[in-house]
Write a structure and sequence with these properties.
Blueprint (H helix, E strand, L loop, with lengths): L1 H17 L30 E7 L2 E6 L9 E6 L3 E5 L8 H15 L6 E5 L5 H4 L11 E3 L4 H8 L9 E4 L4 E6 L8 E5 L4 E3 L8 E4 L2 H15 L6 E3 L30 H13 L7 E2 L4 E4 L10
Parallel strand pairs: 4-5, 5-6, 10-12, 11-14
Antiparallel strand pairs: 1-2, 2-3, 3-4, 7-8, 8-9, 9-10, 13-14
Helix pairs in contact: 5-6
Length: about 300
Protein backbone atom coordinates (compact mmCIF):
# COMPACT_ATOMS: atom_id res chain seq x y z
CA UNK A 1 0.00 0.00 0.00
CA UNK A 2 2.85 2.38 0.82
CA UNK A 3 4.47 1.67 -2.56
CA UNK A 4 1.21 2.53 -4.36
CA UNK A 5 0.83 5.87 -2.54
CA UNK A 6 4.41 7.04 -2.99
CA UNK A 7 4.18 8.02 -6.70
CA UNK A 8 0.93 9.89 -6.02
CA UNK A 9 2.51 11.79 -3.15
CA UNK A 10 5.51 12.70 -5.29
CA UNK A 11 3.31 13.95 -8.13
CA UNK A 12 1.10 15.93 -5.73
CA UNK A 13 4.13 17.49 -4.01
CA UNK A 14 5.70 18.45 -7.34
CA UNK A 15 2.46 20.00 -8.58
CA UNK A 16 2.07 22.00 -5.37
CA UNK A 17 5.67 23.21 -5.52
CA UNK A 18 5.19 24.40 -9.12
CA UNK A 19 1.90 26.20 -8.47
CA UNK A 20 2.18 29.91 -9.22
CA UNK A 21 2.69 32.01 -6.11
CA UNK A 22 1.12 35.45 -5.86
CA UNK A 23 3.63 38.25 -5.55
CA UNK A 24 3.53 40.46 -2.45
CA UNK A 25 1.92 43.87 -2.97
CA UNK A 26 4.34 46.60 -4.01
CA UNK A 27 4.29 49.70 -1.83
CA UNK A 28 6.89 52.41 -1.41
CA UNK A 29 8.79 51.84 1.84
CA UNK A 30 9.34 54.55 4.40
CA UNK A 31 10.21 55.12 8.04
CA UNK A 32 8.71 56.77 11.10
CA UNK A 33 10.89 58.38 13.77
CA UNK A 34 11.46 56.42 16.96
CA UNK A 35 10.02 59.30 18.98
CA UNK A 36 8.20 62.55 18.25
CA UNK A 37 8.67 65.96 19.82
CA UNK A 38 5.51 66.85 21.73
CA UNK A 39 5.49 70.06 23.76
CA UNK A 40 8.25 70.38 26.28
CA UNK A 41 9.49 70.03 28.87
CA UNK A 42 11.01 73.39 27.87
CA UNK A 43 9.02 75.17 25.16
CA UNK A 44 11.95 77.52 24.49
CA UNK A 45 13.80 74.61 22.90
CA UNK A 46 10.89 73.03 21.04
CA UNK A 47 10.39 73.84 17.32
CA UNK A 48 6.92 74.95 16.26
CA UNK A 49 6.83 72.08 13.76
CA UNK A 50 8.60 68.77 13.58
CA UNK A 51 9.13 67.67 9.98
CA UNK A 52 9.80 64.03 9.19
CA UNK A 53 10.59 62.63 5.74
CA UNK A 54 8.79 59.28 5.58
CA UNK A 55 10.28 58.84 2.12
CA UNK A 56 11.26 61.10 -0.78
CA UNK A 57 7.63 61.95 -1.64
CA UNK A 58 5.85 61.93 1.72
CA UNK A 59 6.47 64.34 4.57
CA UNK A 60 4.81 64.21 7.98
CA UNK A 61 4.40 67.52 9.83
CA UNK A 62 3.59 67.67 13.52
CA UNK A 63 2.50 70.86 15.21
CA UNK A 64 4.13 71.45 18.59
CA UNK A 65 2.16 71.08 21.80
CA UNK A 66 3.69 74.40 22.81
CA UNK A 67 1.67 75.96 19.97
CA UNK A 68 -1.49 73.94 20.57
CA UNK A 69 -2.03 71.00 22.89
CA UNK A 70 -3.83 69.04 20.14
CA UNK A 71 -0.43 68.48 18.47
CA UNK A 72 -1.99 67.42 15.15
CA UNK A 73 -0.19 65.55 12.38
CA UNK A 74 -0.39 66.86 8.81
CA UNK A 75 0.65 64.87 5.74
CA UNK A 76 2.21 66.26 2.55
CA UNK A 77 2.27 63.90 -0.46
CA UNK A 78 3.90 64.53 -3.84
CA UNK A 79 2.91 63.16 -7.23
CA UNK A 80 4.31 64.06 -10.63
CA UNK A 81 1.78 66.84 -11.22
CA UNK A 82 0.35 67.81 -7.83
CA UNK A 83 1.12 67.88 -4.14
CA UNK A 84 -1.51 67.06 -1.53
CA UNK A 85 -1.68 68.48 2.00
CA UNK A 86 -4.03 66.70 4.42
CA UNK A 87 -5.28 69.13 7.13
CA UNK A 88 -3.92 72.54 8.09
CA UNK A 89 -3.39 72.38 11.85
CA UNK A 90 -4.74 73.85 15.06
CA UNK A 91 -4.72 77.22 16.83
CA UNK A 92 -2.15 79.69 15.51
CA UNK A 93 -1.12 77.37 12.69
CA UNK A 94 1.27 78.70 10.05
CA UNK A 95 0.98 75.52 8.01
CA UNK A 96 0.91 77.50 4.75
CA UNK A 97 4.37 79.01 5.30
CA UNK A 98 5.81 75.68 6.43
CA UNK A 99 4.30 73.88 3.44
CA UNK A 100 5.64 76.47 1.02
CA UNK A 101 9.18 75.92 2.31
CA UNK A 102 8.86 72.14 2.02
CA UNK A 103 7.52 72.39 -1.52
CA UNK A 104 10.41 74.68 -2.48
CA UNK A 105 12.92 72.15 -1.12
CA UNK A 106 11.18 69.28 -2.91
CA UNK A 107 11.16 71.20 -6.20
CA UNK A 108 14.83 72.03 -5.89
CA UNK A 109 15.70 68.40 -5.20
CA UNK A 110 13.58 67.25 -8.14
CA UNK A 111 14.63 70.09 -10.44
CA UNK A 112 11.09 71.40 -10.85
CA UNK A 113 9.87 74.94 -11.37
CA UNK A 114 6.44 74.66 -9.75
CA UNK A 115 3.77 72.18 -8.72
CA UNK A 116 0.06 72.50 -8.02
CA UNK A 117 -0.94 72.11 -4.37
CA UNK A 118 -4.28 70.65 -3.30
CA UNK A 119 -5.19 71.35 0.34
CA UNK A 120 -7.79 69.01 1.83
CA UNK A 121 -9.06 68.01 5.26
CA UNK A 122 -10.04 64.89 7.15
CA UNK A 123 -13.00 66.79 8.64
CA UNK A 124 -14.29 70.21 9.62
CA UNK A 125 -13.25 70.57 13.27
CA UNK A 126 -11.15 73.61 14.11
CA UNK A 127 -8.00 71.72 15.05
CA UNK A 128 -7.83 70.45 11.45
CA UNK A 129 -8.76 73.63 9.58
CA UNK A 130 -7.19 76.47 11.61
CA UNK A 131 -4.42 77.07 9.06
CA UNK A 132 -6.77 77.42 6.08
CA UNK A 133 -6.60 81.20 5.97
CA UNK A 134 -2.87 81.10 5.29
CA UNK A 135 -3.50 79.47 1.91
CA UNK A 136 -5.79 82.26 0.68
CA UNK A 137 -4.34 83.73 -2.50
CA UNK A 138 -1.38 81.34 -2.58
CA UNK A 139 -0.25 80.68 -6.14
CA UNK A 140 -0.83 77.25 -7.67
CA UNK A 141 -3.04 76.29 -4.70
CA UNK A 142 -6.57 74.93 -4.43
CA UNK A 143 -8.22 74.52 -1.03
CA UNK A 144 -11.19 72.16 -0.74
CA UNK A 145 -13.53 73.27 2.09
CA UNK A 146 -14.35 70.60 4.67
CA UNK A 147 -18.00 70.25 3.67
CA UNK A 148 -19.85 67.28 2.23
CA UNK A 149 -20.82 69.20 -0.91
CA UNK A 150 -17.32 70.51 -1.65
CA UNK A 151 -15.71 67.12 -1.09
CA UNK A 152 -18.26 65.30 -3.25
CA UNK A 153 -17.48 67.67 -6.12
CA UNK A 154 -13.70 67.70 -5.67
CA UNK A 155 -13.27 63.94 -5.23
CA UNK A 156 -16.03 62.68 -7.54
CA UNK A 157 -18.20 61.11 -4.83
CA UNK A 158 -21.63 60.83 -6.46
CA UNK A 159 -23.28 58.88 -3.63
CA UNK A 160 -22.29 59.98 -0.13
CA UNK A 161 -21.19 58.13 1.93
CA UNK A 162 -21.31 54.77 0.13
CA UNK A 163 -19.22 55.57 -2.93
CA UNK A 164 -15.45 56.17 -2.83
CA UNK A 165 -13.81 59.04 -4.67
CA UNK A 166 -10.22 59.66 -5.69
CA UNK A 167 -7.48 62.22 -6.25
CA UNK A 168 -4.96 61.92 -9.09
CA UNK A 169 -1.65 63.58 -8.23
CA UNK A 170 0.01 62.36 -11.41
CA UNK A 171 1.30 58.80 -11.19
CA UNK A 172 -0.10 58.63 -7.65
CA UNK A 173 -3.74 57.90 -6.84
CA UNK A 174 -5.25 58.64 -3.44
CA UNK A 175 -8.63 57.04 -2.72
CA UNK A 176 -11.12 59.06 -0.67
CA UNK A 177 -13.69 57.35 1.56
CA UNK A 178 -16.55 59.13 3.29
CA UNK A 179 -16.55 58.09 6.95
CA UNK A 180 -19.06 60.24 8.88
CA UNK A 181 -19.67 59.44 12.53
CA UNK A 182 -17.09 61.55 14.29
CA UNK A 183 -18.14 64.53 12.16
CA UNK A 184 -20.56 64.61 9.18
CA UNK A 185 -17.95 65.67 6.57
CA UNK A 186 -15.25 63.24 7.73
CA UNK A 187 -13.24 61.42 5.05
CA UNK A 188 -10.31 58.99 5.01
CA UNK A 189 -7.49 58.97 2.45
CA UNK A 190 -5.79 55.82 1.18
CA UNK A 191 -2.47 56.41 -0.55
CA UNK A 192 -1.93 53.61 -3.06
CA UNK A 193 1.77 54.42 -3.38
CA UNK A 194 2.67 53.76 0.26
CA UNK A 195 -0.31 51.69 1.39
CA UNK A 196 -0.96 54.18 4.20
CA UNK A 197 -4.56 54.77 5.30
CA UNK A 198 -5.15 58.22 6.79
CA UNK A 199 -8.16 58.03 9.11
CA UNK A 200 -8.13 61.48 10.71
CA UNK A 201 -10.01 61.39 14.02
CA UNK A 202 -11.87 58.18 13.21
CA UNK A 203 -9.06 55.90 14.42
CA UNK A 204 -5.85 56.89 16.20
CA UNK A 205 -4.15 56.09 19.52
CA UNK A 206 -6.46 57.96 21.86
CA UNK A 207 -10.08 58.83 22.58
CA UNK A 208 -12.26 58.08 19.57
CA UNK A 209 -15.10 60.56 19.97
CA UNK A 210 -18.28 59.26 18.32
CA UNK A 211 -21.07 61.76 17.64
CA UNK A 212 -23.27 59.65 15.34
CA UNK A 213 -22.95 56.05 16.47
CA UNK A 214 -24.84 54.38 13.62
CA UNK A 215 -22.90 56.32 10.99
CA UNK A 216 -19.61 55.61 12.77
CA UNK A 217 -20.29 51.85 12.78
CA UNK A 218 -21.10 51.83 9.07
CA UNK A 219 -18.05 53.97 8.28
CA UNK A 220 -15.81 51.57 10.19
CA UNK A 221 -17.35 48.66 8.30
CA UNK A 222 -16.59 50.39 4.97
CA UNK A 223 -12.97 50.85 6.04
CA UNK A 224 -12.73 47.17 6.94
CA UNK A 225 -14.22 46.12 3.61
CA UNK A 226 -12.07 48.54 1.63
CA UNK A 227 -8.87 47.25 3.21
CA UNK A 228 -9.73 43.59 2.64
CA UNK A 229 -8.41 43.77 -0.91
CA UNK A 230 -5.66 46.38 -0.56
CA UNK A 231 -2.26 46.38 1.12
CA UNK A 232 -2.22 48.41 4.34
CA UNK A 233 1.29 49.23 5.49
CA UNK A 234 0.12 51.61 8.23
CA UNK A 235 -3.00 53.30 9.57
CA UNK A 236 -2.39 56.83 10.83
CA UNK A 237 -4.61 59.43 12.44
CA UNK A 238 -4.13 63.09 13.28
CA UNK A 239 -3.41 62.86 17.01
CA UNK A 240 -1.80 60.77 19.73
CA UNK A 241 -3.48 60.85 23.13
CA UNK A 242 -2.56 57.37 24.26
CA UNK A 243 0.42 56.61 26.47
CA UNK A 244 2.87 53.86 25.58
CA UNK A 245 1.43 52.08 28.62
CA UNK A 246 -1.57 49.92 27.60
CA UNK A 247 -5.03 51.35 28.39
CA UNK A 248 -3.58 54.66 29.66
CA UNK A 249 -4.22 57.99 27.89
CA UNK A 250 -3.02 61.50 28.56
CA UNK A 251 -5.63 63.91 30.00
CA UNK A 252 -7.25 66.46 27.69
CA UNK A 253 -5.03 69.53 27.38
CA UNK A 254 -1.71 67.71 27.89
CA UNK A 255 1.02 69.45 25.88
CA UNK A 256 4.02 67.36 26.91
CA UNK A 257 3.72 63.61 26.33
CA UNK A 258 7.18 62.13 26.89
CA UNK A 259 6.00 58.49 26.79
CA UNK A 260 3.32 58.61 24.13
CA UNK A 261 2.09 55.82 21.87
CA UNK A 262 3.50 55.76 18.33
CA UNK A 263 1.05 57.23 15.78
CA UNK A 264 1.23 54.38 13.27
CA UNK A 265 -1.06 51.36 13.69
CA UNK A 266 -1.85 48.22 11.70
CA UNK A 267 -5.07 46.81 10.24
CA UNK A 268 -5.54 44.59 13.29
CA UNK A 269 -6.41 47.70 15.31
CA UNK A 270 -9.12 48.57 12.78
CA UNK A 271 -10.56 45.06 13.11
CA UNK A 272 -10.46 45.41 16.90
CA UNK A 273 -12.42 48.67 16.63
CA UNK A 274 -15.01 46.97 14.41
CA UNK A 275 -15.35 44.08 16.86
CA UNK A 276 -15.83 46.45 19.78
CA UNK A 277 -18.52 48.45 18.00
CA UNK A 278 -20.43 45.32 17.00
CA UNK A 279 -20.27 44.03 20.59
CA UNK A 280 -22.29 47.08 21.71
CA UNK A 281 -25.31 45.88 19.66
CA UNK A 282 -26.40 49.40 18.85
CA UNK A 283 -26.09 50.71 22.41
CA UNK A 284 -23.19 53.21 22.54
CA UNK A 285 -20.95 52.88 25.58
CA UNK A 286 -17.46 53.89 26.56
CA UNK A 287 -15.16 50.93 25.91
CA UNK A 288 -11.45 50.76 26.69
CA UNK A 289 -8.90 48.96 24.53
CA UNK A 290 -5.14 48.66 24.70
CA UNK A 291 -4.48 51.36 22.10
CA UNK A 292 -7.66 53.46 22.02
CA UNK A 293 -10.97 54.16 23.73
CA UNK A 294 -14.38 54.30 22.04
CA UNK A 295 -15.93 57.47 23.47
CA UNK A 296 -19.55 58.21 22.43
CA UNK A 297 -20.76 61.76 22.95
CA UNK A 298 -23.12 64.42 21.62
CA UNK A 299 -22.34 66.14 18.29
CA UNK A 300 -20.24 69.32 18.48
CA UNK A 301 -20.12 72.38 16.19
CA UNK A 302 -17.60 72.19 13.33
CA UNK A 303 -15.61 75.18 14.58
CA UNK A 304 -14.76 73.58 17.91
CA UNK A 305 -11.97 71.15 18.62
CA UNK A 306 -12.24 67.39 18.20
Amino acid sequence: MIHRLLPLLLVTSAAFAQAPQSAPPIVEPGTFPQTWITGGPNCLTVPEWQIHEYNANLYILRESGCTNYEKPFLYLLFGKEKALLIDTGAGASDAAAVTQKLIAKWLKKNQGASIELLVVHTHAHGDHTAGDKGFDGMAHTTLVPATVEAQQKAFGIAQWPEQAGSIDLGGRIVDVLAIPGHQPAHVAYYDRATGILHTGDHLYPGRLYVSDFAAYVESTRRLVQFTETRPVSHIVGCHVEQSAAPFVDYPVGTAYQPLEHVPEMNRGVLLELMSGLEAMHGKPARMFFRDFTIWPREPRPAATKK
